[in-house]
Amino acid sequence: MGQVAVDQAYTNEVTDTGEKFWRKDVADLLRVREGFQLSEIDPDSLPGTHASKAEGHAELLRSEQPLRELQERLLARSWAGSRDRVLVVLQAMDAAGKGGVVNHVFGEIEPYGLGLAAFKAPTAEERAHDFLWRVEPKVPVPGVIGVFDRSHYEDVLVQRVHQFAPPEEIERRYGAINEFEKRMSDDGVHIIKIMMHISPEEQYRRLSSRLDEPTKHWKYSESDANERGFWAQHMEAFQIAIERTHTAHAPWYIVPANSKWYARVAIQRIVIQKLEQLGLTWPPGDFDLEAERARLDATSGLTWPA
Amino acid sequence: MGQVAVDQAYTNEVTDTGEKFWRKDVADLLRVREGFQLSEIDPDSLPGTHASKAEGHAELLRSEQPLRELQERLLARSWAGSRDRVLVVLQAMDAAGKGGVVNHVFGEIEPYGLGLAAFKAPTAEERAHDFLWRVEPKVPVPGVIGVFDRSHYEDVLVQRVHQFAPPEEIERRYGAINEFEKRMSDDGVHIIKIMMHISPEEQYRRLSSRLDEPTKHWKYSESDANERGFWAQHMEAFQIAIERTHTAHAPWYIVPANSKWYARVAIQRIVIQKLEQLGLTWPPGDFDLEAERARLDATSGLTWPA
Fold this sequence. Notes:
2 copies of one chain form a homodimer. The first copy, chain A, has a single domain (about 1-295), classed as P-loop containing nucleotide triphosphate hydrolases (Rossmann fold, 3-Layer(aba) Sandwich), CATH 3.40.50.300. The first copy, chain A, is about 50% helix and about 10% strand. The first copy, chain A, contains 13 helices and 5 strands. Chain A has a 5-stranded parallel β-sheet with strand order 2-3-1-4-5, with helices on both faces. Chains A and B meet through helix 1, helix 4, helix 5, strand 2 and helix 9 of A and helix 1, helix 4, helix 5, strand 2 and helix 9 of B. Chains A, B: InterPro entries: P-loop_NTPase (IPR027417), PPK2-rel_1 (IPR022300), PPK2-related (IPR022488). Chains A, B: Pfam families: PPK2. Chains A, B: This is PPK2 family polyphosphate:nucleotide phosphotransferase.
């Protein structure tokens, strides 16, 4: 009875919120389709909603609690033996808002349920190993939502653009990624790969504002301006990588990201929807309830100091 | 100028909040003193404040933003070469509220700035190594607030109570811990060790409510009732461990925890105060501001597709 009541209350809440804000299934709208062209996707667009920025912020706040509860159920079920977990891969040009998504979407779930890994330029030891060597240990354990801020995709994106690896090695990696992600998926990892798509004009405004604000200088790197000179090559590398690694078990979503609020609320919704699909009922305890009640009650008079 | 203005605004905010809520320096009140007796500390007490539960919740919310900003400064400074980081060790009997502190105090800082490690019963591989072998890799890197939910202290607490290790090995560990923590401290780790102190009566109420609520069953373990039979031995192990490992560089704080709100707001305050003592001004950028402005502006006309 208690179980059913909780589930019911939860389901109603999410449905109500979603129906008000989203006019269409945003996960379906943003999911990559056969023949997609990145150059045809407008970073200013807001697929699936006619909401204002203020409504977007309100929806983000409203959906925090459903996301938190779904995450807690995922974690609870892992204690009861479930292998389910989620891996969100975030890839984007600099200043596209990956950090904001981590802080404002995933920062709202319990720390126990979040596995954040930020991949930077590989160390000498990492470079000496296969490119997936440093990734495997960061795959989330059951019950956790893993978030990769950059990922193994850097090895076919920036490494392709700057030819840090020869073409045949880049070519090998697409297949290796697909096999790796298939193996993770077969073990219960639900993979959501997201490209946050901003325009060069919007990136300019964001980098420029970092220079304007002394408390943001630590986030600015000289390489940020350099990479703008390779924008077309980066987009080409994204186009190819997404074509080669978009699979049923590890799909790509392209999220227009010129509006920070839209990108956050869309990614939040994609993750909530995936969790909803998992049918996350609360697991039963692994003990005899009446016997435990009796054992615990037998200690009810305990005091200390005696 | 911008730098000074930011610092000033920040400092005022924290001071105002603290002065309203805390009548005394709570970190000083809760810090272990020579000759302390755990049995004389009342888990129901609320040292340092006369506030109500509602005021406690309000203070917790009010101090989220100062804590977030201090954390961000700590992180920013690590990018500029600072070795500073914080390690909070949480130890307590079951259901004392460690999880609530993680979620409601540390869950409010940015995920990039939090390094949470939960130590469970050691695996066979971990048992084959020295007891600190599994701890070293979890020490936070510069810029991060590490939180240990249980820790190397389990090796002198539960292991002492149940004689999982012989007395001479337990004895060895106190010294090993002090040397380990001294080495961490010398490398820039600011260590805060907290015992959350609840009464057996309060633990009974909390465990009992977990049995009452089906969505909490996954948090209940049969060992919870068993361990109540060893309460006095656990308290003795705490008393000895704290006496033996309370040092200037790695002090213990005993936080009365029968009131969840008090424990949370007191721990939040202890951490904020430690961060304030570090003098965390924003670091300068590692670039020539005018030159970068010019380089970036030279790319301001970039569009894509061309």
